[in-house]
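Page 47, continued from p. 46.
Same chain as before, 75 aa.
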Amino acid sequence: MEGFQYGDYVVIKAKENGVNVIGLTRGKDTRFHHSEKLDKGEVMIAQFTEHTSAIKIRGKAEILTRYGKIDTEES
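Result:
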């Protein structure tokens, strides 16, 4: 995993009630390992680790990463 840095963070701010944030494992088989439900205005700071390779977000949210800002409402 050249170039990957453990500890990269993402900030997720819910823009509606019921935004799902799902952590996915790394390894041979990708699996769900953690989930959270955020209500409007709630903020979650998530970190990529040796166990978390991806984060899936369902619902309207604003996501901030070191690469920039992503708004799930945009097409």
